[in-house]
User: What shape does this take?
Amino acid sequence: MSKKGRRNGFALGAAAVLALLMPAILAHNEYLISVLILILLNVLMVSSLRTIALLREISLGHVGFGLIGSYGSALFMMKGGLSFWPALLASGLLSAAVALALGYPFLRVKGIYFSILTLLTAETFRLVAFYWRGLTGGTMGLVGIPAPGPIALPVVGIVSFDETGAYYYLTLVTFAVCMAALYLTERSHLGFTWRAIKNGEEISQSVGINVIGYKVVNFAIASFFAGIAGSLFAHYQRSLSADFTSRFGVVTSIYLVVYMVVGGQGSFLGPAIGTIVLTVISEWARPMKEYQPMIIGAIAILVVLFMPGGLVGLSNLVKRKGRGPGGARGT
Amino acid sequence: MKRRSASFKLLGVVLSAALLIGAMGTFHQTFAAPAKHVKIGSVMPITGPLAVLGLAFNRGWQLYLDKINSQGGLKIGDETYVFDLISEDSKLSAEGASTAAKKLINQDKVDYVIGGIMEFELEAIYQVTSARKVPFIIANINVPGHQADVSPKKPFLVRLFYSHDDTHSIDLDYLIKTYPKAKKMVIVAPDVDYDRMIEHLTTQAKQVGVDVAGVAKWAFGTTDFIPTYTKALAMNPEVIWAMVSGQATYQLMAARQLGFKGLFISNVPLGPEVFQHVVNDPTALTDVITNGVDLSKPNEAIKDVMDRWQAKFKDPFVSDCLAAWDQTWILTQAMEKAKSTAGDRVMATLETMTAPGSLKTCFGPGQMGGLKRFGVNRVLTRPLPLTRIMNGKTEFIGFMTVK
Amino acid sequence: MWLQAVVNGVALGWLYIIMALGLTWILSIMGILQLAHGEVYMIGAYVVYYLCSSLGLNVYLSILISMVVMAAFGIFLERFLFRARADRDPVLTPIVVSTGLSLIMTSGAVAGFGLYEKSVPRLLYGSIRIFGGAVPKDRLLAIAFSAAALLLLFFFLKRSRWGQAIMASAQNREGALLRGINPNQMAMISMAIGCALAALAGALAGSILMLQPYMGSQPMLKGLVIIVLGGLGSLAGAFVGGMLLGLIDGVIPVIFGPAAAAVAPLIVVILILLIRPTGMFGHE
Assistant: This one.
């Protein structure tokens, strides 16, 4: 294995060990672990949002597919009789299917119009979930969503996912698998084609690439993972509500974009960094009470104005300064 | 080049996250103090559209706890107890309420949780508190009997806020006495699960000879009430009943602008001073009934709260804090009777305080009740204020006892 | 009832149009999505409140001053927060900046003005009867103000040199640049106009509807809907879109109820966008 490869593997392994040990590190504090779970779910949402951004399209309606995943998974288990893992997969596929269906007409619309279109579509989904009492409980919300059924593991015995610590591991494993999938997709031929389309749509078209086809697939894949994140959320929170200030509202969609940009959408790790930093600051700033939003707003503005590559670019910035006038080559 | 920086970046990210999150835990640790502390955690929306209520409630709780603490604390037997209020923001979402409750319980180790305005907040908070057997005191509910409300299946849950439909008989009695010719009513309600209350009111109205001609519903979040009132007034009512809405002031303005001259009843504790402050059309401020307190004629208890508010805060008094003050007051009354501050003992004691006048509140003597309707005696009943505004002037009718 | 609903719809429509106009200018000339536009509207309303209640000024004068103040604020924002730079992503940076700004402005309003409900003085009292329905006079006045603002804007754009430069910029940014039109100046002017319009809409809404720190989010959404309906950079489009939305919002709740009222405009817009991706009157 090359030196680079070994360093890479070492870092990845260390990160994995740290992630696995987190609950112990946090002294099994349920609140902190629950913050971690929400961070993982948000990172997955933002990373899949970034997938769409690879095409230089900004979706302001990503939470709409999260909503489909959440309610879908909950209803698959509650009314469809599925157990957790099939429901998880099915809800991801459902979100992807909806994205596929909407993709063709939606992706013909470009730029800011696409953003507004996605925003309005997500709002429509939310309003449907909010008002359709028969399906989603309507304004009363959906309660009593079951946790994943307990499983028997070799060393630890029976693990019940009612407990936050156990759910953290479930989320972590699913998260790792999904992030790996996203990473590999980005570096695959598919991802390469997406980048080609981003850099020149007409040229790509002229060399025979089915541009709209690739865009739709991109949209569907991103929505699949949004659906997965949604499902994980539903079985963690155990209840869902679709009112304006909920997770499925417009404000959340915009926050996802903020996390992505503050982290730096150029890098695969950008979403993770942005989400983690802003979430931790947001939790830390709890004593600020009603001024907490101001702090987040100020930080977001400062990062985006003065660190154009996002926080990810920070290490590059430091490196560049350290190297002197030669500057960073090829990074 | 890219790979190396990427891998170290990843490690850096996870390490920093671990450090930060771990540090968060220690940063918020409270240190043990000599006197015995009872910690009450509050979960209310302090940002967002309902922040007025959230802050008013927090202040109400804080003011009462300040009072008790300044008197040296609560003496039970040989022990003295001092109270701490730790407030968290629910961000008006189930997720936010859930996280806030978890922080209060796991990090701050509170003994009681109080709060919630919207039903989805109540459900989210209860999910967390019930798992840890921490008592949760519901501070507000819009729809009594909702699945988020008290029930025999829900231990460690009590509602120290009255049921809105207790106002029905009080307001209807006043209506038939003072406006005997008004026989036709239209109910205007937000479109959020008020159906049972609407049915209840319709039945009660019929019993006193008032006919409900129809219901006009508006979407939660509406700012312009002209369309809704266009619909309502098309039914030619003599009375409008604006059901449980903090927007009653704007509804009044819309109704009067469209030419409605009849009686306007708002059965929510919105004070007449809010009407006078917000309604920028003086001709509208007549023939208005509200279940809010007339702050220009406070009783002793209310005056005490108002004075303390003025001393501590610079902005105008919000009468919603009175309900909150009562909640912490009632809690300490129950603690005195239970001779304990332990959650389970206090909850059990509260359930026994059902004799009329067992509890003291700012609005008069009250008690716990609700066995017939909710299956458990875990709902507060106390007198409700009734105020009329005529020609811009407030007429306080009194603190009416609920039947 | 029908007629009443229609008239209400038209009155509402004018408020929306003014909101949308500001937003569509900023979007088409600067190419940015100014997500804090709703907060500019809100602060504009609070400025009027402050001038009327604390300084005792006449309400009409206050509205004028508020428009000037917010226009200046808009120029400040453009200069320091929204000016494009080579290393900043032109689409994403403004989204994040305006989101942050929106958070700061709402928290700021809460800190500065408190949460206690307030209202801007009523412009006119009473109602007049039109076709058997009562129409509040202040809504008619709001229509008049909005129409006047629209006309002024129209003349400014068609007759003055600045105006024509702006129109050119809105229709084709690169082309305008080639003709020597300074994009920074255009940006400053459009922010100033956009914010002044938002302040006007906010002041009117603060008097007619309600005044509280979170009053900006709904109109913002409506503004977005109108831009899409009418198409970017088009005055006519903003007008038609605003009217359409106003009518939908005025009539559907009366006939069908709140659920339909919430979903209907969104469905209409989605359909229009799909059929005609640049909006009804939009340019590419």
Q: What stands out?
A: Chain B touches chain A through 58 residues (CB under 8 Å). The CA atoms of residues 179 and 373 of chain B lie 31 Å apart. DSSP finds 13 helices and 16 strands in chain B. Chain B has a mean pLDDT of 90.
